[in-house]
Structures are given as C-alpha cells and as structure tokens.
Amino acid sequence: MPAASIRSTMRSRRRAMAEINVVPYIDVMLVLLVIFMVTAPLVTPSVINLPSVGNAALAQPAPPITLNIHANGQLSISYQNGGKMREDTLSKAELENFLQKQQALAPDQPVVIAADKNIQYQTVISVMSDLKTWGIKRVGLYVQASK
C-alpha cells in the first residue's frame, strides 16, 4: 500500500508542475509599463519645417476620355471639349492620332474603356494593348453595377 500512495503523490506533483505560473510574466509587463510611462513625457517631438504652398491654385484633373467599343466592333470616343461633351466615331489610326494629341496636352488624362457586353474579351484586350503601345499610361474599364 505504501507504493500506491507514493504513486498518487507523484501524480499530483506532476500535475502541479505542468501548470504555468503567469505571475512573473505579469510582473515583467507591469515593470515595462511603468518604464514606458516614465520615459514617454521625456521624449521630445521632432520639429519638421515644411514648405508652404502659398496661393497656388489646385490643378483640376482632366475628365476621362471614354473609348466606346460597340457591339459591331466600331470604336467611338466621348470627351469634353470646351466644357461640352462630344462623341466621335473613329478608325484605329484616327483614334491613335487623337489620343496622342490629347496625351501631349494632358499627360495624366485617363482613358476609360466602355465595351458592349456582347463584345468578345479578346477585342477589349486588343484595344488595351493598343493603348499601351500608343503610350497611354492611365487606362480603366467602365463597369455597370449589378442590380
């Protein structure tokens, strides 16, 4: 019988030893908290001298040029000219010429592709590739929100 009681006391000691004592970790965290609270007011914020803008006018972004790809594959563009919206049907050569002139005037003007939903995806990719070849940097796609 004494051997059985020794085994039971050893089992209880093993169980007790398996528990992690978190009190030392809490003590360390409280000491770190006190250190940070004492040193935080001593840190001086750095001063940065920034240039002033003055009375500079904000540049208005150019409205995007919309490149429409119709169901029959025809290309047309919609753009603002003198505050009025215009829409022109162009061939690829005319489109390239027009877009390069517009990019020379406003290099950051975006071109947004609005393709008919029945157009093959390859046609849209081909037009996007042409735009990249022509040096157009900002190209986007119009999408219609689902209802």
TrEMBL record:
Keyword Cytoplasm among record annotations: no
Keywords assigned: Cell cycle, Cell division, Cell inner membrane, Cell membrane, Membrane, Protein transport, Transmembrane, Transmembrane helix, Transport
Regions crossing the membrane: none
Membrane-related topology note: Single-pass membrane protein; Single-pass type II membrane protein
GO terms of biological process kind: cell division; protein transport
GO cellular component, one term: plasma membrane
Main location (coarse class): membrane
Family: Belongs to the ExbD/TolR family.
PANTHER family, alphabetized: EXBD MEMBRANE COMPONENT OF PMF-DRIVEN MACROMOLECULE IMPORT SYSTEM (PTHR30558), TOL-PAL SYSTEM PROTEIN TOLR (PTHR30558:SF7)
The protein's name in its UniProt record: TolR protein
Organism the protein comes from: Mycoavidus cysteinexigens
